[in-house]
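In this section we walk through a basic example: taking a raw amino acid sequence and producing a predicted 3D structure, encoded as discrete structure tokens. The instruction is simple. Fold the sequence below.
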Amino acid sequence: TIDIKNLLESVTFPYIEKVLQKKVQEEILDNEIKSAKIMVEKRSNSFWSLAKPENGLKWNLLGSIAELLYQLVNIKMELKSFEFTGTRLVKAYCDNSGWYIIDSLHRKVEKQYFEYSKWIQDEENLLEQIVSHTRNEYFVVVSELINRFLNIIEKEGLNIKGIESQSKIFFRFVKPFIGKEKIAYFLVDALRYEMGTELINGIDIKEASIYYAIACIPTITEFGMAALLPKANENIQLIEAKNNKLEIQIDKIPLRNRKNRVSFLQNIYEDSCVVLKLENILKMTKSTRKKIDGKELVVITSQEIDELGAIDNISLARKIMSDILGEIKHGIRNLNNLGFTRFVITSDHGYIFYEDIKDDLKINSPGGQRLDLHRRYWIGKGGADSENTVRIKASVLGWTGDFDFIFPKGLAFFKVIGSSQGYFHGGISLQEVIIPIIDLKFEEKVVKRKSPAIFKINIGRKVITTRFFT
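The resulting token sequence is shown next.
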């Protein structure tokens, strides 16, 4: 018998690729991750990988799976001796080589698996087993991190030492530059931290920094977008309004939707500010240029990811998650060409995206006097506690008011009619709560005025005898 690994250097027959890929898949299922990684690295740029696209697609997918599983093993080892405080946990997740990498890799695996499955049938069903195994391993670690983070928030609250608060982003990163330079403020719905790191890595300028902040809770658009507005650092409030409903306010002004938020911004900055959607700046029409002309602050909003995730279009939402980063970069270039030199890109909240949802993750609502209910949180008075939930007072989360929050533990969620099946936010997890703050500073473009060209025409003959001359 031939040791299959002896075929790693062979490129004689195309069938060898299938043999080696099967071996890698078997090693992944046997948790021989390091060996699988080595095999993928040796074959991913082989002749048959490049000559046959289906081989390249599968090697890339197997490589991402092996790397994700490898990172998950490392995090499991770190968690055994980890000293859990809010600051240490957030920094471990966000700093260089941080744990956020597992979210990035998981997103990559799901995208690559979707692209591969569109074109190629997995005849042996082995790849499907591996993807399911990888998802399970990922969510085991994510569940552990969620429960640890929940315990910390329950004890320490949201005011974690050394970690920026979402409500201070405008005050710290935007307000100081208004009137001094032309600034663009991007409010991107559901741009979680790992996506922010990918975005900044694709922007090649000297003055580019990424920071992280804790989003206000619950991590939904209505609250998060309000927390990114001017004056949010002073007096943002969550109050019990009429009809037993909750309402987010700044200066006692209700901020229920985008229209309210746009009006609030423009009442403060009047003619010096314009609010546009991301799609408006991708194709700079004459009308859009006119709206931007003379403005010191342009605010760009985007809700593509949230809208698609909420309607349960999982495959399209995954595509948009990748496309949105390119569109943001394109929008930045267009605004920079119009003289904008400073850019701040941030988000209202992150998200958890997963398939293979098990029935045992679905739990009943706490009941009681309900003020708000989403799949990842309940807000109200009274209600029943269970072993699958954590109750936290509003004051612990930075809100005034005589009501409580109840959050599902791990990846559990409350049964809510009409919700999508794979896209989640609203709760307390690092993936939902940690948002990026990207700060970019471009050099001012100096427009060099060219000297006027002087042309001199010499006629070859003294007498012109035709109607044309050259």
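Looking at the output, two observations stand out. Residues 359-420 form one domain. The chain has 17 helices and 18 strands. In the next section we compare this with other chains.
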